[in-house]
Design brief:
Length: about 375
């Protein structure tokens, strides 16, 4: 096993896919100097089709290395709690994109929420300088392990153990703030602890990340969504049941023609709009030579599977269970999005004030505000 070969393959794959940020060449330089295997724990977790199974460096070194360097769009799960991933080395393409969006400069004071393995904090310190980065982690064991890795790397990061929702007021005000886990509502302390004109980059709603700039009076922060990506929620956030638990083993309640063609759900711009309009609905798709299949559920009691029409004449089919007809709800949300001009991901922005958070398109002051379409959700469960 030559770990340098795996490092170079991943770097080449990022180049081939245009993932290295042109405006932030320091990101590639930092990742080269601080490769992610230096921050990976000796035990990783890989999905085996039924559960997350451990992969130990000592006994399965080649599998361990492949998990660390799987690809530009693959994360490496570093901790599993109650059968679900609780921490990971995020996929490299998203890490690079978020660091680019942060616009960090040497000498900036930076607060990171979610230390995890410590890799992202090390990259931030490579840019801002030793002694300029504070990182918060709620899990003391993760914090201790990250602290040791960061010390070995000479990163000079101050790691604190606390709930990231409150930030770290002892080091405020910060020039930059970045979170490595998803929130549905931006904690107001994050805005308060960032100076006017400062920038916050954070994952929102498990599906995308946003960059906010604090207003001159410090009483709001606004900005545009920057990209798509799946993120773990903050620790303790209920993730709902996975699809197979919602689906169960019983027969579908209904089976007929879907109201929405499953191939439409491959559009990332639509998926983002659906996340805004129907925030509790989870969607996954798979495309093969026979077309696109979609699996939809609400994490509680309703599910739908959409299958495509085939060349042999089999019609597209929706199989459903539970009190909600989820493909119908998606259809109505899709129609709402179409009527609004089908805005893309980068047309959406967010504003956070001390009392509210809202998503808009066009202009933060005059553009239409987008809110969950609660009227589309007739569930009683």
């Amino acid at each position: 096993m030559d770990i340098e070969v795996h490092r170079q393959r991943l770097a080449d794959a990022l180049s081939a896919r245009g993932c290295w940020p042109v405006d932030s060449p320091w990101v590639r330089e930092a990742m080269s100097a601080l490769p992610r295997d230096l921050f990976a724990p000796d035990r990783l977790w890989v999905w085996d089709g039924e559960d997350y199974a451990p992969v130990d460096r000592a006994t399965a070194s080649e599998r361990w290395v492949r998990a660390v360097f799987a690809g530009p769009y693959d994360s490496a799960v570093t901790q599993v709690v109650d059968g679900l991933p609780a921490s990971s080395l995020s996929c490299v393409s998203v890490v690079a994109d978020m660091l680019d969006a942060l616009m960090a400069e040497p000498g900036h004071r930076i607060l990171e929420l979610g230390t995890g393995s410590g890799w992202n904090a090390a990259l931030l310190a490579a840019r801002a300088g030793a002694g300029h980065v504070t990182s918060v982690e709620v899990d003391a064991r993760l914090a201790d392990a990250a602290r040791e890795r960061l010390k070995a790397a000479g990163a000079g990061v101050d790691v604190r153990v606390c709930d990231g929702a409150g930030g770290w007021p002892g080091g405020a005000p910060y020039d930059r703030l970045i979170a490595t886990y998803a929130v549905d509502e931006v904690p107001w302390p994050w805005v308060e602890q960032t100076r006017p004109g400062g920038r916050l980059v954070l994952p929102w709603g498990r599906l995308g990340h946003i960059a906010l700039t604090v207003a001159d009076d410090g009483r709001s922060a606004s900005g545009w969504f920057q990209g798509l990506g799946m993120f773990m929620p903050s620790r303790g956030t209920g993730q709902g049941k996975p699809f197979h638990e919602v689906r169960g083993d019983g027969q579908p309640d209904t089976q007929d023609t879907p109201s929405l063609e499953p191939h439409l759900l491959r559009d990332g711009n639509l998926l983002f709009a659906l996340r805004v309009l129907l925030p509790d609905v989870r969607i996954s798709t798979e495309t093969s030579g026979t077309g696109t299949r979609a699996w939809i559920h609400d994490g509680r009691s309703s599910w739908a599977t959409l299958t495509p029409a085939t060349d042999s004449g089999t019609a597209a089919t929706a199989y459903r269970g539970g009190p909600r007809r989820l493909d119908d709800e998606l259809t109505r949300a899709w129609q709402h999005w179409q009527a609004a001009g089908a805005p893309g991901l980068y047309d959406f922005g967010m504003t956070r004030t001390p009392t509210e958070q809202y998503i808009w398109t066009g202009d933060k002051d005059t553009g239409p505000r987008w809110r969950p379409l609660a009227s589309l959700v007739p569930h009683s469960s």
